[in-house]
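Comment thread on ticket #2218

A.B. wrote:
> Attaching the input chain for the structure job we discussed in standup.
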Amino acid sequence: MTQQEVADGLGMARTTVVAIEKGERKVTSQEVVKFAKLYKRAVSELVSKRVVAESLVPQFRASLKDVDVSYDQAAIELQNRAEDYVELERIVGAPLPMRFPPEYDTRGTAPERIAEDIATAERNRLGMGDGPIGNLRDGLENDIGIRIFYYPMPSKIAGLFGYSDVLGACVGVNSDHPRDRRNWTLAHEYGHFLTTRYRVEVTVLRTDKKPVGKERIADSFAKYFLMPAPGLNRRFSEIHNAATRGITLADVCNLANLYQVSVQALVLRLEDLSRLPAGTWERLGAEGFKVQYAQKLLEIDANPPFRELMPPRYVSLAVEAYRKGFLSEGQLARFLRTDRVSARLQVELLEHKIHVENGGEFRPIAPDLAQSLGGR
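C.D. wrote:
> Ran it. Output below, let me know if you need it in another format.
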């Protein structure tokens, strides 16, 4: 909102709004209530000591050639969620450990070679081996300290990445996209974090042209990071050697599901590795191959229900702040982007208590998680 729009909404002169923003005029309690109503925020948000971070939105606007209001909305949402995350950490006193590696040098050789070298180095640094990655989101948040949020965006936006000294590395992923697309987007944005950390980025789905420059490196990084050659070659050989008729479409679909990438991405990767004939994906498309129909026949659930939109650590911090009395139930619901009933359910789910029947009644008992199990 412009200062004039705020002034009109509050029924005061624009110069008064300017003076309040500059700290040259004190604001009354009645005016605080009016501000909160106008901004559709809680009064507590305006009067509490919150973390103040430089807005990422102007950076996104400056970096994009075609300014689109949907980009603004996605960036604002990422900013708000990241600020709430840092605020919860401040309230509870548990900052997110940030173990950021130095930016990788992308000068010199071909982008594909650079991307593969970075992907190999990162897997080695994180101790991931060369197999499929089970939960990329948890790994990037817990092992590195990246704030990752899934929320609805326009279908053309796959994800976005931003960085600030206060908020750290922040990634937004379109929750409306299928699982494999989300996984690829997250790896792609991680590639940007590793190579162009201080440059904001919006990943827009385009079919009219191939990625170039930094986008090509990030996209290639996602390919090599999610499907490293040694592990994929080994698994392909195991399937091939055990088969009597060679590799089948069913084998490829199952392998794509194991790596949580699209069938198209896997087939193209196998073509790169010369494990499938060049042009296999184009031939399948010409023959009318439908991925979703094949997955249905194989009973592959390639897009299971997505329940954890908010980072698990974020939810835990919010519940802890509520249990300690730092947040009201309404504030908890706002932090969790849900209603009060669902917020209470989140609290109950994280209680980690077992209920046992005792004479017709149920009582909670806390399990002794430190007890010895006598293993060897």
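A.B. wrote:
> Thanks. Noting for the ticket: The longest helix spans residues 69-92.
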